[in-house]
């Protein structure tokens, strides 16, 4: 904590908001969408009563309209959702679709992810895209004209880290997190595990924390492996957090607060849960940068994926 002469003590933590990070992507999207006639159409399926899911849907619709995309929210019952997805798969007027999870809150949600056609999966959650991500395969074709689709929330966090300068641009592309240690508190199949894999594939040593244990995601000594490996550890969050350059939290519980005293001085802290996982006042005594939410960047990544998929559907791949 620093002291300014003649004033109250102030901390040196910089708060960075998602809206600022998203600005350049939004401007890029506004230009890209002008290339399409008709404009890409995104369909969102809402089959739950979760207020956070409805808020996300409203943000998505608002952003789509502001940028120039077409958006349609389809509210259906849980039992009718699968049929509605299949119908949208066959509808040539639908370029991309997403599901506002949770729906059933169990393995059936993972099944629904696979019902969405890969050609229209803007969330990047189908098996093909997930397999490519875990195996560090970055293109869909041998000519490398079509990039694989990455899950939009983990991708948003990657873009935030790039914006903050955590990625080292001097190092070769694909290795730019080499030397960084990152802790991710969440190992869900939708965000936490894919995020750990993405960061490890880019060269970081990633400690993935959930309620049961801590796993290590890494490409090995000197990042010699092409893709990451996962090993079990006997470590606890108290062991890994203090050595981390970056701490990323996404615990879906209003009761959870990351212990601020474990944050290394100057560390970057990012929250991707709608529940605030950090206690801001105490966190700012340690963290160098705090990103309290990522929603607007996530939506921007969703629309970048939509641009890519629409360009693939129309046989004119765009690299964004």
TrEMBL record:
Gene3D superfamilies noted in UniProt: Leucine Dehydrogenase, chain A, domain 1, NAD(P)-binding Rossmann-like Domain
SUPFAM superfamilies for the chain: Aminoacid dehydrogenase-like, N-terminal domain (SSF53223), NAD(P)-binding Rossmann-fold domains (SSF51735)
Domain Tetrahydrofolate dehydrogenase/cyclohydrolase catalytic: 19-123
This protein's record includes keyword Nucleus: yes
Swiss-Prot/TrEMBL GO biological process terms: folic acid-containing compound biosynthetic process; one-carbon metabolic process; purine nucleobase biosynthetic process; purine nucleotide biosynthetic process
Pfam family, one: THF_DHG_CYH
Localization per Swiss-Prot or TrEMBL: Cytoplasm; Nucleus
Keyword annotations of the record: Cytoplasm, NAD, Nucleus, One-carbon metabolism, Oxidoreductase, Purine biosynthesis
GO cellular component, one term: cytosol
GO MF annotations in UniProt: methylenetetrahydrofolate dehydrogenase (NAD+) activity; methylenetetrahydrofolate dehydrogenase (NADP+) activity
Catalytic activity, EC: 1.5.1.15
Protein family: Belongs to the tetrahydrofolate dehydrogenase/cyclohydrolase family.
Subunit structure: Homodimer.
Summary of the function given for this chain in its UniProt record: Catalyzes oxidation of cytoplasmic one-carbon units for purine biosynthesis.
Annotated PANTHER family: C-1-TETRAHYDROFOLATE SYNTHASE, CYTOPLASMIC-RELATED, METHYLENETETRAHYDROFOLATE DEHYDROGENASE [NAD(+)]
Entry protein name: Methylenetetrahydrofolate dehydrogenase [NAD(+)]
Species whose genome carries this gene: Schizosaccharomyces octosporus (strain yFS286) (Fission yeast)
